[in-house]
Amino acid sequence: KQWYQRRVAITAGQLQEVSDEHVKVTEELAQLEVKEKELDYEEELLFREINKYEHRIAEVKAQSNCLDDELKYAEKQLERLKKTNVYNAVFHIWHEGHFGTINGYRLGRLPTFNVEWEEVNAAWGQTALCLQSLANGTGHIFQKYQIVPFGSTSYILDGENKLPLYTNGGLRLFWDAKYDQGMVAFLDCLKQFLDFLEKKGSFRYPYKIDKSKIGDQKGFYSIKLHFNSEEQWTKSLKYTLTNLKWALTFVVQYKLAKTSD
Asked: What angle do CA 206, 211, 212 make, to 5 degrees?
């Protein structure tokens, strides 16, 4: 009987130990489950952060690619602009029948075409601006004269003497020789510039200039309006614009060649 009681006591003690161990394991398991849930939550947060960063990385890459495309486009535009000379964009010299034109303004008058003096003055203003711009762009300085582009009231300075490239017509035109002097002075400036360009390379211009006249082997025409017909005066102005256009084209090509180098 004593042996039985001892056996029961031992067994009861072992059961208690097992029970205590079970409680301990259960508590540890519960703690591990809580920890697992915490880790799952932290893992979910981590994945969210990773996804957020991956999305941001994708956005940055997309922005970078977009900026690369914009940079390439800007570089192409810059290259195109380098090849687009400002002179061609600003000054369009052409012809309209018997008239030479610059930016749409006719330079000259004919008995059969009543061109208003306002248009002729505007054409002279554009012509003066064109020649002076070409001179500035190439570093040429005119001898004796100074061209002053001033829209429809442009003029040339000969020392302190102001020679207009504009007129209102009427009776005053026939006794005031300064308008003629202004045009002759412009022709002289044009010849100076053409000769200057000839020294730069293989440049030639179609119409020769001899003081107040311009022309070729077929004939020379005076740029003076006095003691001249409107037909011949207009033809001399057309030749003047033609020479200016040749100079414009040469300067554009010359500058493009230097840009390419």
From this structure: 90
How far apart are alpha carbons 141 and 196 in whole angstroms?
10
pLDDT tens digit sequence for 86-139: 777 789 999 999 999 999 999 999 999 889 999 999 999 999 999 999 999 999
d(C-alpha 14, C-alpha 191), whole Å: 126
Distance from chain centroid for Cα 219:
42
Asked which of 3-17, 44-58, 105-119 is least confident by mean pLDDT, the reply is: 3-17
* Distance of alpha carbon 125 from alpha carbon 110, whole angstroms: 20
Q: How far apart are CA 29 and CA 14, in angstroms?
A: 22
Asked if the model's pLDDT at residue 53 lies above 70, the reply is: yes
Helices (H), the chain: 2-83, 86-90, 117-138, 172-175, 178-198, 230-260
Tell me which amino acid residue 108 is: G
Q: Tell me 228's DSSP state.
A: S
178-198 helix and 117-138 helix, angle to the nearest 10 degrees: 30
Question: For the chain, how many residues are written?
Answer: 261
User: β-strand 145-148 against 155-158: which pairing, if any?
Assistant: antiparallel
Mean pLDDT computed over 228-257: 91
Do 222 and 213 touch, CB atoms closer than 8 A?
A: yes
> Order of strands, edge to edge, in the sheet holding 219-222?
208-210, 213-216, 219-222
For the chain, percent of residues with pLDDT exceeding 70: 90
Helix axes 2-83, 230-260, angle to 10 degrees: 140
Q: How far apart are CA 147 and CA 63, in angstroms?
A: 52
